[in-house]
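This part of the workshop introduces the protein records we will be handling. Getting from the letters to the tokens is the skill we practise here. The record below serves as our worked example for the rest of this section.

…
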Amino acid sequence: MALALSLGRRGLGNTWPNPAVGCVIVREGMIVGRGWTAPSGRPHAEPQALAQAGAAARGATVYVTLEPCSHHGKTPPCAQALIDAGVARVVVAAGDSDARVAGRGIAMLRDAGIDVVTGVLEAEARRDNIGFFSRIEQGRPMVTLKLASSFDGRIATAIGESQWITQAPARRMVHAMRASHDAVMVGGGTVRADDPSLTVRDMGVRAQPARVILSRHLDLPLSSKLAQTAREIPLILCHGTDAPTTLVDAWDGIGAVLLPCRVSGGQMDLSDAMQQLGGHGLTRIFSEGGSGIAASLLRADLVDYLVGFTAGVALGAEGLAGIGPMGVARLGAAPRFELVSSHAVGPDVMHHWQRIRD
């Protein structure tokens, strides 16, 4: 199962709205088939492993990281494919909470006389596909908030200079993390200030993550790099329902996807924005700025993971804080995270945290 999980991780960031699943087929102690979810979510892992195994799948044991699907979608049910192949045993890491499956895949296999074992490395499987489970169970994607800052938590000097606080190894690691997410997200202020492309560079990726921009009024430059590449790389604009129609039409005309979101208290409601993005199929979002978006996401309890890159440089109180005002008066009201890992990346330190939830 550990091998199946490692195979499934190869699809992270490329399979949305589907989960990234891995599958290994073993017969008489030998691996006869391997597969993982293909880009865009199909074909699924099981039929790819079965195709590799061929006739050797009959009587074999199948290790799969998520319950095989039982419904007819754009592809036939994977549970039926396993039955037709004549496998003897299926070991499943985690059940699928999608209402179209939710135990039906396992029931199909057992009804066909196949021995089914569940819950093997389940915690690891759920962690790998936390974005898929979040979209199915909560209606929103998983959110990773990345901050690259000085030792004293600043992301720019007093005059706005920010390139580069961290060094090349950390920046390369950020590109690798972008590649494992469905989309990279920033606020409109970052677009106006930096004109970013938000692409994965120098990593040999075949498909770029989508770019998500949060901008209530859509007051973004139509001459920006994002606008120029909107037809080649998915560009999703979350905007307020009160955004000017002329700008909505202009961005739609150059190939962007427009998602109108509720406005509350004079600000775009980020909880609604995440629901809209989940409805669009996104499961894993990598948020890179700015400080206002970081504060809003934390304040709305929408951050699942924090990833910090800390450099050995101090910028002082006049520098721009990595996280904007959150209105936290008491420590007990602040969102808490627990440390997952910490290690050096070149001359900088990377620390990875997960949200502590009741």
Summary: The first strand starts at residue 22 and ends at 27. The chain has twelve helices and 18 strands.
